[in-house]
Amino acid sequence: MNKKLTSLIVSFSGILFFYAISLNGLRAQEKTAFVDNWPAWRGLYNNGAVSAGNTPVEFSETKNIKWKTEIPGKGHATPIIWGNQIIVQTAVATDKKAEKASNAPASPMAPSSTDLIHQFKVISFDKATGKINWQTIVKEELPAERTHELGSWASNSPITDGEFIYAFFGSRGLFCLDMKGKVKWERNFGQMDIVASFGEGSSPALYKDKIFLQWDHQGKSFLYALNKKTGKEAWIKERDETTAWATPLVVEVNGKGQLITSATKKVRSYDTETGEIVWEFKGLTNNCIPCPVYADGIVYLMSGYRGNALKAVDLASAKGDITGTPAILWEYNQDTPYTPSPVLMDGKLYFLKANNGVMTCLNAKDGKVIYSNQKLDGIANIFSSPTGNKDKIYVAATNVVDVVKAGGEFSLLSKNTLDDTFHASPVIVGNDLFLRGFKYLYCISEK
Prior knowledge:
By secondary structure, the chain is mostly beta strands. It is 6% helix and 42% strand. It has one domain (3-444): Methylamine Dehydrogenase, Chain H (7 Propeller), CATH 2.130.10.
């Protein structure tokens, strides 16, 4: 089959897939495109899991590495995959100094600043070989803001509908590219003011003809709904919020789309067509980072900075202010994550404690503890999110990737060491595990 015909089939499949969403709701994704592709940061419904494929339990620099490719620049954005393309965002420092360096206020948590012009790039890697298909510089400028020493200026993950790629670089803007890397439109939303110069990180969400951005920071916060074909506003809602890094979630309830946002002051669900609030409740802890996840009519929201919060919301009965109502089915306010998002798979909710390698598993329906406070091996500090695959969960941190058995009993299957550090989350397509490190992009697969 020639390349042109293959490209047409992949593109047509993407169009059919998103048409199926409009007819049958987001459930159409579950056994189709989210098995053959990984089009968004956390996969289907932000759940961080797929139900198919056989990925390796054991691997190293000399075992089960299908290919390994160096990535230019620095970025912690998790890759996305569509067809034979892996899309990566990165910020590449040039040798050009700006006349005026960043004058953002100092952070109490060891900030990084720069006086170098950076190229903000979107790069396509070939999924089969790891070779670069194309790379596009969408912006070249000095980052005005500082970022945490453990962060990057390219931490927001892209998203795709199979027809276009939407690359969000926060204060650099949002860029729509075709699948060959040509920029179709761009939007700038100004400069974010992130608390304590911790850096940016929320990723976009897509639904039907709209792309959504949660713009929560120390200045005026907004929720943007843009026409995905043109970048023009469908609606904008001002939000009474401070900095949050959570990525919004789109679900359908009775055939209508809801955009669910996790934040400090309030958790809110918005009508995707109008931007009107469908339901809300008092927010979570400060510095909300974990994204909402969803299955079987229930959405789960959590955070874990200077406190612990986990709430399960019944979407069928959620309307108006649901604080203290039966619409919140259950709570489990301990051992919740600060940075990592959870994995929701086969009726079980897996999450890490704070930024530590300590895992808890709950029954998703009723919140009953299956196990808790199980220590992973070699993971003391973690900023990526775990990813599940049928019967396994991959947890990537410094130079260690632990593999945990999924199910009702905690079991550490392996501890794997690689010559890199991981803040991006693992991605799984078919029998391949993809890891984006500080230096390399890995494809791990049994040969």
